[in-house]
């Protein structure tokens, strides 16, 4: 009887302890907080030990977003968190609405639209609460148009460069800890410099920093800028370290035509979840593509051009690196789905291969990648410039000449009655040396 009474007493004490458990024993806790600023918006991410239970509301004068997290410890020090966002002043605690919960106040610099959603664990992240803050009144950039004194205006050839992944989505991660998102941004920036230095060409970046953009929105950026070409830069990965080599991809209207292509399609879905795109979670796949009729009418030219350009890019990349595939590959990737814009995806190498991960971290190799892609793109547009571009105008008024044995720049200048300097400028030559078989543009005066 005494033993039974001891057991009953111990049980009652256990129940009482559970009823008076302090807030420090709440099951959830904030592990870290990240702030990702981007043009016109900012993403705040809470990494949590468990699935967040949350509610929120906004306050004005001054503008604030208030987030209540139920059953969560007050363990994170927001004073250590620095915000580089022009939209967010700071984060701080306030009095919670109930015991065992926390209230986080996000002080804003202006009135913003907010979207909150939770994400389950996805490697390399744990549970997350994502807060997207959007400034709908942020100024929109527009493509620059090259204007001339003649009555007919000619424009730049606009090339949109898409650095894959970014922000919450690191892309593939090499064995040495290299993030794909950093490789792609650096190569795209190098390529942009080459394009902008070329008269009559202009580069536009889908992202200029470390922030996330949904794959579905990247073609929209190209369309907004009236792009003549979209190039998406990536670094490949696979489940084993053996595969290696670069490859170039175009859109497939059907299932990918290789095992690697199917892996890429799966990886794109994974990237969308890492980035936390609300439209993906809501599964709006039915709205991702235009109607089949519009695709049939609009995509024929774009796909043909994309394939032709892909072959040129492969030809140049073969001079600096091994190719995983010697012909263009096809996969159903959202970033390639602009029906009116030729689009290619360049996989610069396998970041999952230790040797190629080392190469991709080498500054000289990244520059070689940018140089090779640029040369292929320039060759393509010299052959087929857009009708209303400066290059098309120059092609109409210029001639070409293939250098033969014994010919020099001075001899050609005399023959065509032009200055040597004009020939050098038209062909971006830094010296008077020409090669037999070289095709030169001869400007008309």
Question: Could you explain the architecture of this structure?
Answer:
By secondary structure, the chain is of the alpha/beta class. The protein folds into three domains: 28-134, Sandwich (Immunoglobulin-like), CATH 2.60.40.3500; 157-273 and 284-383, Zn-dependent exopeptidases (Aminopeptidase); 399-441, Membrane-bound Lytic Murein Transglycosylase D, Chain A, CATH 3.10.350. It is 31% helix and 23% strand. It has eleven helices and 16 strands. Helix 6 packs across helix 8.
CATH class of the largest domain: Alpha Beta
Straight-line distance between termini: 115 Å
- The CATH architecture name of the largest domain reads 3-Layer(aba) Sandwich
- Could you give the count of β-strands? 16
Radius of gyration, CA atoms, in whole angstroms: 28 Å
The portion of residues forming beta strands comes to 15-25%
CATH topology of the largest domain: Aminopeptidase
**N-to-C SSE string, H for helix and E for strand:** HEEEEEEEEEHEHEEHHHEEHHHEHHE
**Level of helix content?**
25-40%
Strand order of the largest sheet: 10-9-11-14-12-13
Question: Could you give a quick summary of the protein structure above?
Answer:
With 445 residues, the protein is α/β, with parallel strands linked by helices. The protein contains 11 helices and 16 strands.
Q: How would you describe this structure in keywords?
A:
445 residues, alpha/beta, Immunoglobulin-like, Aminopeptidase, Membrane-bound Lytic Murein Transglycosylase D, Chain A, 3 domains, 4-stranded antiparallel beta sheet, N-acetylmuramoyl-L-alanine amidase activity, N-acetylmuramoyl_amidase_3, N-acetylmuramoyl-L-alanine amidase, LysM, cell wall biogenesis/degradation
């Amino acid at each position: 009887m005494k033993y039974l009474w001891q057991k009953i007493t111990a049980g009652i004490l256990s129940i009482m302890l559970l009823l008076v458990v302090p807030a420090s024993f709440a099951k959830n806790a904030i592990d870290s907080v990240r702030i990702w600023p981007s043009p016109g918006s900012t993403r705040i991410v809470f990494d949590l030990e468990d699935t967040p239970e949350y509610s929120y509301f906004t306050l004005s004068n001054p503008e604030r977003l208030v987030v209540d997290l139920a059953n969560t410890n007050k363990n994170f020090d927001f004073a250590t968190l620095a915000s580089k966002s022009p939209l967010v002043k700071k984060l701080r605690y306030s009095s919670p609405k109930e015991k065992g919960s926390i209230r986080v106040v996000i002080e804003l610099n202006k009135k913003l639209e907010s979207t909150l959603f939770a994400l389950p664990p996805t490697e390399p992240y744990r549970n997350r609460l994502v807060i997207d803050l959007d400034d709908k009144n942020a100024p929109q950039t527009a493509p620059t148009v090259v204007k001339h004194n003649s009555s007919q205006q000619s424009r730049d050839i606009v090339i949109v460069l898409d650095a894959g992944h970014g922000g919450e989505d690191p892309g593939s991660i090499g064995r040495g800890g290299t993030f794909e998102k950093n490789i792609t941004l650096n190569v795209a920036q190098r390529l942009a410099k080459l394009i902008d230095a070329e008269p009559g060409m202009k580069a536009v970046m889908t992202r200029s920093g470390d922030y996330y953009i949904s794959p579905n929105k990247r073609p929209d950026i190209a369309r907004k800028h009236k792009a003549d070409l979209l190039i998406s830069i990536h670094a490949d990965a696979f489940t084993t370290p053996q595969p290696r080599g670069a490859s170039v991809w175009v859109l497939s209207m059907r299932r990918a035509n290789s095992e690697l292509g199917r892996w890429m399609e799966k990886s794109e879905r994974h990237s969308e979840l890492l980035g936390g795109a609300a439209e993906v979670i809501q599964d709006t796949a039915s709205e991702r593509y235009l109607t089949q009729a519009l695709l049939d009418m609009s995509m024929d030219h774009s796909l043909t051009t994309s394939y032709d350009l892909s072959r040129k890019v492969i030809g140049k990349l073969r001079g600096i690196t091994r190719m995983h595939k010697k012909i263009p590959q096809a996969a159903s990737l959202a970033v390639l789905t602009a029906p009116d814009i030729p689009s290619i995806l360049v996989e610069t190498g396998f970041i999952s291969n230790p040797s190629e991960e080392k190469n991709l971290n080498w500054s000289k190799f990244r520059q070689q990648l940018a140089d090779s892609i640029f040369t292929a793109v320039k060759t393509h547009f010299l052959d087929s410039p857009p009708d209303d571009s400066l290059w098309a105008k120059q092609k109409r008024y210029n001639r070409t000449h293939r250098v033969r044995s014994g010919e020099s720049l001075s001899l050609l200048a005399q023959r065509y009655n032009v200055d040597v300097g004009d020939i050098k400028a038209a062909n971006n030559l830094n010296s008077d040396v020409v090669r037999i078989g070289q095709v030169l543009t001869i400007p008309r005066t």
